[in-house]
Structure formats: structure tokens, C-alpha cells
Amino acid sequence: MIAHAIFFYTFSIIAVVSAIMVTASKNTVHSVFFLILDFISISCLFIMIGAEFLGMIMLIVYVGAVAVLFLFVVMMLNVAQQKNQWFAGEVTSKHIPVGLIISTLIFFEIIIVIGGWKYKPEIFDINNSLANTSVSNTHSLGQVLYTDYIHVFQISGMILLVAMVGAIVLTFRQRSGVKKQSYIKQISRERAEGVEVLEVQSNKGVKIDD
Amino acid sequence: MEYLSIVFQEVYKILFLLVPVLVSVAMIVWLDRRVWAFVQKRQGPNVVGPFGLLQSLADALKYIFKEIIIPSSSNKVIFILAPIVTMTLALIAWAVIPFSATQVLADINVGILYLFAVSSLGVYGIIMGGWASNSKYPFLGAIRSAAQMVSYEVSIGVIIINVLLCVGSLNLNDIVIAQQNMWFVIPLFPMFVIFFISALAETNRPPFDLPEAEAELVAGYQTEYSGMMYAMFWLGEYANILLMCAMGAILFLGGWMSPINVYPFTLVPGAIWLILKILLLFILFALVKAIVPRYRYDQLMRLGWKVFLPLSLTWVVLTASYLFYFNLLPVN
After folding, report:
1. DSSP states along B53-81
2. How many CB pairs (< 8 A) connect A and B?
């Protein structure tokens, strides 16, 4: 039990400190690395409470894919411009009120969730849940997800698909003058259309167009 | 006191796993160069020790005594962390590899997910190294490799789903035992081929070694590294390759199971079979390196997203429909 507590506090301290460092560090790339550290320690906490599937999926999706893209975007930004950020420089930004509103909203949401837990504990009772606790975590998740909540699951999948299509449509632009390879065209070329024998007159040359 | 003995036992077990892995990584570098040389009708490293077996040790010694140069404009902490991250991630994945029904360091429920997660984290070592070097070639290499590894992970994940449909468990030992009657390489052969090619791309091996394409990027993300830090990148890379081979052996070639379930073969311990299968896959890796020319970057991306992903997704639907129709879905 002591070992459990030691690990719990280690991971949670790392999680909280790195979450603070995400906002506090001046280098944006460092922020993303702290965010990754935060994700990893949170997934360790998930594994510690026995939600190993959730923890692993967190590692694969957030750390393995999402954070890589974050890192990409941040590394592409011009780091020199980052020096006068709102917390460092004189420039008073308009982002602060918006950020304050959002963080207050999130704070109240958390209050509501935790308050609900306090006054209606039976909602969060594990024995009350639909899951069969005798089988492993992954199995019970599958049993609930693909039977009772199949519609919700599929709707969330559709929303993700729509978001993906939307993102592609928004960023897609047809550029002219870009040469593209068509594999079918390349393979189906015959010698007759590829090779042409010309009589070259002296001092004239030939014009080759593609 | 009891606590301490448990800790010592675990440390002993971990050392018993890691030391052979590190030694075999050194040997595998030698094997790689040797196979490469034989394909090109050369001798390869054959001077140090019998058959040149100690070449890697000599190389390691050389790297240890070389100076570690840290570029003055680099981001020092991340620059030093990058090879450490690569090496650590390549080694911690071995915790879940089963060498027989009982010989496994951590027999966890979500073994295959753990393997997949750790191999997807491998990209960080490369990005960190490339960015922290603060130089053009390493950064280009890092960007290339990040895009490449993220794309090919997707198809590897879908291939793993194929195998899991036939097994019904995420535990690696269960996956091996499910192949008692037939290795998955037979019913899922196209998936095995795609897994093999994706593993090549995932570990930045030729023909997909664009992150370190020496003709264009000097040495990619490791251009600025020297001495032991460079050697650690190397070791991590080869440990990752071995890991991918082990993953292929477990998912498709029956892991520690003997190929034929008859008397003289079953006497051989499971670890030997697993090692033989890993070696077989690795020799294939080395042959591909010697035979196939390097891909162009857009061809690589096209292969990952437009060929492998639709193919493996279709195969998931096929496998699931087949298992469902013939009522073969594993239920426990």
C-alpha cells in the first residue's frame, strides 16, 4: 500500500508541476514537452487505478499522435516572435479576458461534477454500473461500448469524420502548375507514344514539349 | 526486508533480460553489416575476433573514447535528453515480450497496446534530437521522420486489430497460444507483408530511411551528434528494429511456439524458437536494406496512406465478417 501511495504521489506531483510548467515556460517547445510529460504521468495514474486500457489509449492517441502534431506546429512558428508574450512583455493582450472566461467556465464545470459526486454518490457507484467487473477492464469496456452505447459511439465517430472532412476541405486548395505523377499513366505508356524519331536539320534543332 | 528482496528479485530479472538484449543488439549490428556485405559480394567486418564477431564491441569502445561535442547554439538539455529517450524507449518495451508461457517480465493484460504505445513514442527521440541541434539538416530529418512514423503507425495499428480479432485478447501470451494450430501468417498473409513493410518504415530502415538519407541530409537528425550520444542513437535504433522483429514474430509467427507440435521440437525451450524467429525476420530486414533502392518521400507517403491503410482496413472488415459469419469469433 505504501508503494502504491508513493507512486501515486510521484505521478500526481509530476502531472501538476508539468501542467503548471506548460503555461509558465517561456519556450513554446518546452511547453509542448511538458504537456507530453503531463499526458504520460496522467496515463500512469490511469494505469494505477486499474484502467489500463484507457491509460494505453491515452499514450497512443495523445502522446503518440496528437502531441507530435502540436510539436510540429510549434516548431514551425517563429521563435523570435515569441519573446514578447503577454506575461513577459509590455503588450497588453486581448486574450486575457477570453482566457479568464473559459477558465471560469471550466472551473464551474468541475465544481458541478465533483459536487454531483458528493451529493449523489450512487451515480458513480461502480457496482451500479452496467459493466461486468469480473472480466478485465478492456472486455467490460467493449461489452458496454458496443451494446448499450453503440449509437452514441457511432455518432461520435461520425462527428470525428465530419470534422476531418471539414478540416481537409478548409485547407485544400487546388494549385495550378504543380506537376503530379500518375502511376497508371506511367505504367500504361507504350513505346510508340513515348519515343519519336525526328529528322533534325542542322542549325535548327528540335523543340521538345511535354 | 521482504520488500527489499522483492525489489532485488525484480532488478535481477530486469538485468537478466536487458543484458542479453544489449549484447544481441551489438551482435545484430554485426549481422546486418555482414548480410549486407554478402549480398554485394564483399566480406564485411571479419577482422576483430572470430568471423569479426567482436567488431561491434570495438566500435563501441571507439565511441566511448570519442569526445562528445555539444553545439553551442543547441538547446542543451533536450539535445542530451534525445538519445537517452530513444535508448530508454527501445529497451522498456522488452518488458512485455514473452519468451515462454512463464518467462515474461510483466504479463500485463494490454501487452500489445503497451508495445504499440512505446513504439509510437519512439518518434520523440528523433524530433527532440532534430530540433535541439538547431541546424537545418537535423530539423529536416526530424520532420520527415515524424511524418513518416505517424503515418505508418496507423497501418500497424489496423494490422494489430486484425490479429486481435482472431485472438480476442490483448495479452501477448494469449496471442501466442491462439496460434497453436495455425500461425497467423497463413490466414493473414497479406497483413504480414504489410506489417513487415510498415515495420521497415517505422524503424527508419532502408528503403524508407529518408530521415537519415545520407545523400540529401548528411545524417538527418543525428548529424550534430558525436561520440557516445551518437552510439546511443544507433543502439536505440537497432533495439527498436529487434523489437519490431519480435512483434512480428509474436503476432504472426507463433512467438515462442515450436513450428511443429511434435516430440523433438517441443523439447527446445520457447526462448530459442522466439530468438530464431526474430533472427529470421531480421535477416529479411537486412536483405531488404541490401536489395531495395531508397523511396522518394511522396512515394513513401502515398504507399502509407493510399495503399496500406485502405488495404488493411478492408482486411479488418473481411476478417470480422468471416469470423462473424462462420461463428468463429473468440468469446470468453
Report:
1. TTHHHHHHHHHHHSPPP--TTS-HHHHHH
2. 59
Does B28 map to a domain? no
Burial A192-205 (b: 16+ CB within 10 A, else e): eeeeeeeeeeeeee
Handedness of CA B2, B6, B9, B15 (dihedral sign): negative
Question: pLDDT at residue B157 above 50?
Answer: yes
- 3-state SS assignment for residue B170: coil
Q: Does A136 touch chain B (CB under 8 A)?
A: yes
Whether the CB of B313 is below 8 Å from some CB of chain A: the reply is: no
Span B204-217, average pLDDT: 77
CB B160 within 8 A of CB B116: yes
Q: Which helix (H) or strand (E) holds B163?
A: helix B136-167
Confirm whether B275 is domain-assigned: yes
The grid coordinates listed for A12 are 500526481
Alpha-carbon Rg for chain B in angstroms: 20
DSSP B230-242: HHHHHHHHHHHHH
Domain count, chain B: 1
Tell me what pLDDT residue A156 has.
Answer: 93
- Measured between its terminal Cα atoms, the distance across chain A in Å is 75
Quote the domain boundaries for residue B130: 69-325
Shortest Cα distance, chain A CAs vs residue B128, angstroms:
9
| Torsion, Cα of A127, A132, A137, A139 (10° steps) | -160
Is B32 a member of any domain? no
Would you call A72 and B143 a contact, using CB atoms and an 8 Å cutoff?
A: yes
Write the CA distances from B308 to A111, B115, B193, B302, integer angstroms. 46, 21, 10, 9
Predicted-complex ipTM score = 0.81
What are the tens digits of pLDDT across the range A43-95?
A: 989 888 888 888 888 888 888 888 888 888 777 775 555 554 544 445 556 77
Residue B166 is assigned to a structural domain of this protein: yes
CB contact under 8 A, A71 and B170: no
Phi, psi (rounded to 5 degrees) for A185: -60, -45
CA-based nearest distance B124→chain A, Å:
8
Interface of A with B in 27-56 (CB under 8 A): 29, 33, 36, 52-53, 56
Best residue in B108, B110, B202 for a mutation probing chain A (most A CBs within 10 Å): B110
Domains along chain A with CATH numbers = 1-82 (1.20.120.1200)
Q: Distance (Å, rounded) from C-alpha B94 to C-alpha B105?
A: 8
User: What single DSSP character describes residue B261?
Assistant: -
Residues near B165 by Cβ (< 8 Å), separated by ≥ 6?
A: B316, B319, B320, B323, B329
- Three cell numbers written together for B317: 472488415
